[in-house]
Amino acid sequence: MISKDYVIYSAAGIHARPATALIKLAKTYQSVISLKKGDKTVRLNSMLNILAMATQAGDTLTVLVEGPDETEAAAAIDTFFTEQLKNL
Predict the structure, then answer these.
(1) Which domain does 20 fall in, by range?
(2) Where is the HPr domain (predicted)?
(3) Which of 8, 18, 25, 85 has the fewest CB atoms inside 10 Å of its own CB, making it the most exposed?
């Protein structure tokens, strides 16, 4: 299992557009990808799950990736959080 923390710098936090992009990205991998905020963990398979976390600027999310292609999936998720999230 790969685990990495990300601080959300986007002023809008994670809203519908980045949530949709995250779900599409997660579906391209066999690994199970989850987000954790505090004591709540949700899988990246439902926009409602992600939006229910109410992630705002300054929040820290932990991404958990487990499966046969976890290294590739974790790298893609890392790129999303470090480069693409600020543009959505």
Answers:
(1) 2-87
(2) 1-88
(3) 25
Rounded distance, CA 35 to CA 43, Å? 6
Q: Catalytic one among 2, 12, 13, 15?
A: 15
Write the CATH number for 11: 3.30.1340.10
- Active-site annotation holds for 15: yes
- The predicted-structure confidence for 10-35, as pLDDT tens digits, reads as follows 888 999 999 999 999 999 999 999 99
d(C-alpha 18, C-alpha 61), whole Å: 14
pTM (two decimals): 0.91
Which among 18, 20, 34, 68 is positioned nearest to 9, based on CA atoms?
18
**24 neighbors 33 (Cβ within 8 angstroms):** no
Pull the structure tokens for residue 80. Answer: 């999303």
